[in-house]
């Protein structure tokens, strides 16, 4: 007789109230450079679990536990989502765009969007010629030069009367959902899922009455999508002793992704621990040992040269800050249907929480062979 696998039933750390916040937080627009409304919502959720908070000049939001402690540990995510800018308005009322972050031109046609103006949101769609009219031998693919917005206007003057001008930011309209009781789906899970997870760590610390021997800075940075800028600024302000960053990485099990170049990573198999020059060896070892000790499943990823995340900004600041990266596997990055596994979310939260409980006051991460 085959031996039955004795697999423990997964117990979620995410509460019903937490999930309600997560849904509202994902549905709230937070484009690069215009993150403030989302940051305000995030800090309001975080408020019961921290001692104090602040927002810097560019919108990075920080909650602090034990603010008077000299030894400082950062847990960090980034708050901004990809978006578009109005770049050119034609005489007949159509709008051409440029990227704000890594927006994908191939997914734009037929998407519904919100144009953010001083008069409020204006609805629009990315238009595209009907299949019946594309009769040439070689079809033109979507590109930055040919995707356009239609907001129902017939002239440039009519567009401008709605409050739309060059520089207005544009976000997609797609909203959060739970798929097959297994995946969270939505736009901007990269990386407001991270902001949610670090807030949940703060909640668990408070609810479990855990006292940390250091100052904990829960950081939700801005402007990651255009070059880690928010993390650069806040790292110099906080001057942390340790930084643990969480972001997303690619699930490579879906079609058209090469595992030889992208690695073998999957949603549902746990947090991803990264190996890269910016990832400090001893801190990374602590992550792995903590995961193994607490039976938290995890995966490994190698990054050439840089991680491409806020880890790099913290690591190379202030003369070198021991930094590590815990990534959340995600399908369909930079689309409106990004997908993350519910159990991975729980396990990232658990891993960060347990690692914090293993960091001592004045913990020495000095590199030693």
Automatic annotation (TrEMBL):
Entry keywords, A to Z: Aminopeptidase, Hydrolase, Metal-binding, Protease
Residues the entry annotates as binding Zn(2+) 1: 78, 190, 247
InterPro entries: Peptidase_M42 (IPR008007), Peptidase_M42_aminopept (IPR051464), Peptidase_M42_dom2 (IPR023367)
Cofactor note: Binds 2 divalent metal cations per subunit.
Active site: 224
Range of residues in the leader sequence: none
Pfam families hit by this protein: Peptidase_M42 (PF05343)
Cofactor(s) essential for the protein: a divalent metal cation
GO biological process: proteolysis
Gene Ontology terms, MF aspect: aminopeptidase activity; metal ion binding
Binding site for Zn(2+) 2: 190, 225, 334
SUPFAM superfamilies: Aminopeptidase/glucanase lid domain (SSF101821), Zn-dependent exopeptidases (SSF53187)
Similarity comment: Belongs to the peptidase M42 family.
The name this protein goes by in its record: Putative aminopeptidase FrvX
Organism listed in the record: Pedobacter duraquae
